[in-house]
Amino acid sequence: MSILGSLDWNDIFIVPFFTEPSLSTGIAAGAGGVVVLGALAVMVLLTVKGWWKPLWSNWITTLDHKKIGVIYIVLALIMLIRGVLEAVVMRAQQVSPAPGFLSVEHHAELFSTHGTIMIFFVAMPFLTGVINVVMPLQIGARDMEFPFMNAVSLWLSIGGAALVMASLVVGHFETGGWTAYPPYTGIKLSPNEGVDYWIWSLGLTSVGSTLSGINFLVTIYKQRAPGMKLFDMSIFAWATLCTAILMIFAMMPLTVASLMLALDRQAGFHFFTATQGGNMMNFANMFWLFGHPEVYILILPAFGVFSEVIPTFSGKKIYGYTSLVWATIAIAVLSFTVWVHHFFTMGQTANLNAIFGIATMTIGVPTGVKVFNWMLTMWRGKLRFSTAMLFSTGFIFTFVIGGITGVMLANPTIDFATHNSLFLVAHFHNMLIPGLLFGMFAAVNFWFPLCFGFRLDEKWGRRSFWLWMIGFYGAFMPLYAIGLMGAPRRMAFFTEPAYFPWLVIAMLGALCVLAGLIAQVIQIWVSVKNRESLMVPAGDPWDGRGIEWSLGCPVPEYDFTTIPAMTSREPWVDAKEAGKRIMDPTEFVDIHLPKPTGMPFLVGLVATLFAFAMIFQMWLIAAVGFVAMWVLVLIRSYDTDWEETITAEELREGYEAHKRLVETTPQIRLDDEFTTKNRGLIMETQV
């Protein structure tokens, strides 16, 4: 066999267009061209601007949790652009006269990549990034417990995303949907490299997510500030704790299932081959043992974000803190008890379906508790509708609709009629767009100043919110209607005339969502351009409640000059009510931070090379990549010069400088918080 394995010229993205010219192959070639030209354009820009060195020293080699979080979020936004564009193309295909402009195989590839990207390469890096930025600051930590492992997790996730992008240029992605059920994804029915792209891209990112979960859990356990008990943590930190436990236990079944599928395909095993003693239901069970907790891995951090944004912009403390914590724990536990509802229609007994149907409905109870807590927090509060608050309130209304349709689908008799229809697609998006994306958008608008020192432009933020809201309802409410009319999901085209008006509305909704995404890109562009007028160097631009707002903006690499002593659940609010504008320092001591290192990047690079070689059966290159990966880890393990010291005097100088800045920053009223008068430290007595 060649050193290049199964790779040949026909796998290059432009070849199919010349051998089988059509609009469908032309679109595929165009997408591949955009990836190649985009990568070249970025390299040219970095070279012309001379940004390679700062990119390497400030970002690629960083072990700072905040910068790692920012890179995660940038990755998520890049992949979000691809995911939304694919959705628009699919909607356009379905409103075109049958059979449309895409081949059936191309459409199947699009809905497979769309689902895979949005779950694993938008949602997961987005929430991991936000947790990276915020959680250590909220518990009074200087960094994650394992900074090096944190960076390795990042570069493994980027490697997985790079493989999905590479499938546009070399070969094809799979066509069996984001769940990749065998036997369709077995070697007989899917002999090309598509399923292997799915296996190895998810393999990299699932290992990265498992390591992140371990890191979050241990950080919360060991790095909380002195005096901070578990029930003194913020709701976001609690959401992170529960999410971390879910990540540790839920990602493993996915990793195992995908590796077993790889053994079936490449080594002649028969784990999922019914005629050879295997059982594909084992795959379904393992996939959904991951899959349903995954829904709450995605949603719980967003719940945490809303629990921080809503009290801040209501001017009140969160209503029912203890009940919110227990509701979060209950959701995390129950999420492991409902996976069978994903295959009510696959042949198990009525009794089993009834048990899992009831368990599924039960999960609505703690979720309802949270919704009431958020509404009661706003009740009689002084509401300020920032972009973050708009996404939060928009979430509540929209998520309740999605929750009601979820309770309907938990009834096996209804699920039998709607399971394979667009009704299910509408419900799924009804949960995850408000329950994940709206939360992450709120988080970015809320905590952005902590990373960059300036606020995001509110005008374009509000425009993006309304476009997303209108677009969401336009794109997905029609799918409920035609789903109930019998429209099946994953269809490349429809011939039923009654569906057409609804599909046109859904198409317009998808365009509106795309406009919302463009508005967000403009928001970032305008904010960077006007950053001087949006700077909030004194920190706390929203009259916030968490201790992260006691810091200046941007937050220094070491986070806290002195680790705060926790005397209550909200010490920053207590300090402000006592008339203070900066928290009292404790003891200045030398601190040690890990030095920047390129080793995590190299580990991610060779891991990606290994995975790419496995996809195209380049066994020699795969072996070299696998060995190189562990050699790098060993080299790092024997490196004893990996820390740098920041002296107590440097920390004292940093504290004094921030204190002088705070004392010279004029206090403003809340009514001026969205104006250029806001330089930080808005102070107003809270309820």
UniProtKB/TrEMBL annotation:
Keywords for this protein: Cell membrane, Copper, Electron transport, Heme, Iron, Membrane, Metal-binding, Respiratory chain, Transmembrane, Transmembrane helix, Transport
Cellular localization per UniProt: Cell membrane
Residues annotated as transmembrane: 27-48, 69-90, 110-134, 154-173, 197-218, 230-263, 283-306, 318-340, 352-376, 388-411, 431-453, 465-487, 499-526, 602-635
Claim: Cell membrane is one of the keywords in the record: yes
Membrane topology designation: Multi-pass membrane protein
Domain Cytochrome oxidase subunit I profile: 50-567
Domain of life: Bacteria
Keyword Nucleotide-binding among record annotations: no
PROSITE patterns: COX1, COX1_CUB
Official protein name in the record: Cytochrome ubiquinol oxidase subunit I
Protein species of origin: Thioclava nitratireducens
Lineage, opening ranks: Bacteria, Pseudomonadati, Pseudomonadota, Alphaproteobacteria, Rhodobacterales
